[in-house]
Amino acid sequence: MANLLHIDSSMRTEQSRSRALSRHFAEAWRSANAEGTVVYRDLAADPIPHLDHEAFSANFTPAEARTPYQHEARAVAERLVGELLEADDIVIGMPLYNFGVPSTVKAWFDRLVVPALTVGEQGGLLGGRTLTVTAARGGGYGPGSPREGWDHREPWLIHAFQQLGLTDVRFIHAELTLARESPAMIPLNLGAAEDESLAEAHAAIDALFIPEALSTR
After folding, report:
1. Pairing status of strand 123-124 against strand 119-120
2. Which domain holds residue 88?
3. 174 φ, ψ to 5°?
4. Average of per-residue pLDDT values in the chain
């Protein structure tokens, strides 16, 4: 039975484009996997504590020698890693905060790097899974734009998950999502461009499950 791990990370709720895109992906995945199961985690509503030295050390301390805090930290890591290991597909709805991933995503990821669970002697142990990132960004960061290369999520996520053996990573971007909200962007009349970018992102999700969908829109 197929399993999807669905993660959201935007501090926004109803107005979040990354959440809308990840929800679209999850709905399309359910339609394509009628017998499948979905595990949902909201990193904004239920954030993972940032990794500290004692929690980090729990992974290198024999179980019988761990402090109560380390036992708790190890349990958190095993629970989060377990969700990944049980998943065939992963989708993460992710905004762009200060040119990078939300700190909640980094806190979550730091708990995933666990020797013998996700990293073995020969490399990462998460191969065979697909990660889709439905990524929203308030401005324009595409090729030829003044801020091309300022979105540091994609290279970081590719390299971070690569060490865990997960190399099938794809990104679906929606841009200009602050076109109607940012005082600096409102005079540029980019609302139509925002709508077009969002529509293209939704179409790209459809195309993952119905390949001809992208060419017929």
Report:
1. antiparallel
2. 3-176
3. -120, 125
4. 94
Cα-trace Rg, the chain: 19
At residue 130, the pLDDT reads: 97
Would you say residue 213 lies in a domain? no
Tally of domains in the chain: 1
Instruction: Extract the tokens encoding 200.
Output: 């293209």
Predicted confidence (pLDDT) at residue 30 exceeds the cutoff of 70 = yes
In a domain, residue 168? The reply is yes
d(CA 54, CA 69): 8
Question: Which pLDDT value is given to residue 212?
Answer: 55
Quickly count: other Cβ atoms within 10 Å of residue 14's Cβ: 6
**pLDDT, tens digit, for every residue of 175-186?**
999 999 999 899
Flag whether the pTM goes above 0.90: yes
CATH number of the CATH domain containing 94:
3.40.50.360
Angle at 7 between CA 103 and CA 18, to 5 degrees: 80
- Residue found by looking up tokens 């119905």 in the block: 210
CA distances from 99 to 103, 127, 137 (A): 12, 28, 9
Assign 121 to helix, strand or coil. coil
State the Cα–Cα distance between residues 81 and 51, nearest whole angstrom.
15
Residue 3 has pLDDT above 60, yes or no: yes
Is 200 domain-assigned? no
In a domain, 43, yes or no: yes
